[in-house]
Design goal:
The protein is mostly helical and about 300 residues long. Helices cover about 70% and strands about 0% of the residues. The protein is built from 14 helices and no strands. The chain starts with a helix and ends with a helix.
Length: about 300
């Protein structure tokens, strides 16, 4: 019972991703005139949608795409920061239970979404619907080269717009779309390569098509690939500061540069392709994700403190 409760309340929702989604949402709210009580309601809605989307992803990757089905060597690997990929295969929960879990989070999200739609902007309902649909695009995107883009749209622009429209009726949409890009690069274009690395061998046999899987198949250096995206992330942040969208104080995120460099070195030493020997890599990847979550938080704090 305890294991099942943990699965429903922690593992399936994948709360580890809350700093990425939540910080981007509040960043959008700050760009819309400042964080208000309604902004916090938008945050609740956004995190509940995130939880439902993650749970749906576990359902879809088992029941629809099948990449989480099969023996250990034939399915997605369990990660140090999330075990949602293996709950169904291990029999910890049933397919119906996972579907019910996903629908539960989405239904909970409708409360603040409907309130904000009636009291702030009807656009909240539209953005929330798009956010809920991202998880279906994400599962489908693993087979048509839009894998990274789908998650990037969800964690970046859509999260920022949900925060914006949850705060004011007529925000600067362009600013929200652009402001969400750095976190999208971090979690999706760089992060998914790390996340899918231990899954690549098994999932490529099932026909997946995405950059994250391609770099493994082509034996491209994982840390070099991620490092290039990190450089682009910081360059784009510079651009946003130059354009006046982000405050200069968001440059505090640069304190993370030596941390990321150290993690890249550590990744190289633990970069193993053998799925049976990937425990050191899995542990390092977990540390990487936890520390990377500081970037969007620092970015948000810098924006709030700035003029």
């Amino acid at each position: 019972m305890k294991r099942k409760l943990k699965a429903h309340l922690w593992t399936l929702p994948r709360w580890f991703a809350a700093p990425f989604f939540g910080s981007t949402l509040l960043l959008g709210a700050s760009l819309a005139g400042g964080i208000s009580a309604n902004s916090w309601l938008a945050l609740v809605a956004g995190l509940l949608i995130m939880a439902g989307g993650h749970s749906f992803n576990s359902y879809l990757d088992y029941a629809w795409t099948g990449i989480d089905k099969g023996e250990v060597e034939d399915r997605s690997a369990e990660k140090a920061y999330t075990g949602g990929q293996n709950l169904l295969a291990n029999g910890a929960v049933s397919l119906k239970e996972v579907l019910a879990n996903a629908l539960f989070w989405y239904l909970l999200a409708l409360g603040p979404v409907i309130y904000l739609s009636l009291n702030v902007s009807f656009s909240v309902l539209i953005v929330a619907a798009l956010a809920m649909a991202v998880t279906f695009w994400y599962s489908w995107g693993k087979f048509n080269w839009t894998h990274e883009l789908s998650l990037g749209v969800g964690v970046g622009p859509i999260s920022a717009l949900l925060g914006m429209f949850g705060t004011v009726a007529h925000p600067n949409i362009a600013a929200g779309l652009l402001a969400g890009v750095p976190v999208a690069i971090l979690l999706c274009f760089a992060g998914l390569a790390l996340d899918e690395w231990p899954d690549a061998e098994a999932n490529l046999k099932k026909g997946v098509k995405s950059i994250a899987y391609y770099i493994w198949n082509a034996s491209i250096s994982l840390e070099s690939f991620m490092g290039i995206w990190f450089v682009f992330m910081y360059l784009f942040q510079f651009f946003l500061i130059y354009m006046g969208i982000l405050a200069t104080q968001t440059m505090w995120t640069f304190i993370m540069v030596p941390v990321f460099m150290a993690l890249f070195v550590l990744l190289r030493s633990k970069n193993l392709k053998d799925k049976e020997e990937n425990k050191p890599f899995r542990k390092t990847a977990g540390v990487f994700v936890m520390l990377a979550a500081l970037y969007p938080v620092i970015l948000l704090v810098g924006q709030l403190i700035g003029p």
